[in-house]
Design goal:
Blueprint (H helix, E strand, L loop, with lengths): L7 E10 L2 E9 L2 E5 L2 E3 L6 H13 L1 E15 L6 E14 L9 E8 H6 L8 H10 L15
Parallel strand pairs: 1-6
Antiparallel strand pairs: 1-2, 1-4, 2-3, 2-7, 5-6
């Protein structure tokens, strides 16, 4: 029986503070990689709720989205998965210092745009740098573009 194809819907939190971006270093099948706080949309969850949840789980920071930076489609070179990423811009309101980071997350850290460019070979995907470049180019879309209808 053929499996029905569908993209993997993910969210990412783009938070900048004093010229540095909130990132995570995480263990992957390809080794340690850098990514924005990001992850998969869960059943019953809105895209915004997912972005807030993922940022907290992966960094301990409470993320407050205020814009949509972009929507990105990336088919992995291996050809087995296509990601549909919704990247949200926002601010971190606070840090929960007692929070235990998600399994696989080695650490949360702040990196500048130049530092991110210098380690591009260790990014989880090309979407990591593209989201930062779009943020720096001023791409911000009103959150009213996203409509969530609860079941």
């Amino acid at each position: 029986m053929m499996r029905q194809w569908k993209p993997n819907v993910t969210v990412a939190a783009i938070a900048e503070r004093d010229g540095q971006f909130l990132m995570v270093e995480e263990q992957t099948d390809e080794g340690l990689r850098f990514n924005q706080p990001a992850g998969h949309l869960e059943p019953g969850e809105s895209l915004l709720e997912a972005a807030v949840r993922e940022a907290l789980e992966e960094t301990g920071h409470r993320f407050v989205p205020d814009s949509l930076v972009g929507i990105y489609q990336w088919p992995r070179p291996q050809g087995d998965i296509t990601y549909l990423r919704f990247a949200f811009g926002g601010v971190v309101a606070s840090l929960d210092t007692d929070h235990v980071l998600d399994e696989g997350i080695v650490r949360a850290l702040w990196l500048s745009r130049d530092e991110l460019r210098d380690c591009a070979d260790r990014h989880r995907s090309p979407l990591v740098m593209q989201c930062v470049e779009d943020w720096c180019a001023g791409k911000r879309h009103d959150l009213s573009l996203i409509r969530h209808y609860a079941a």
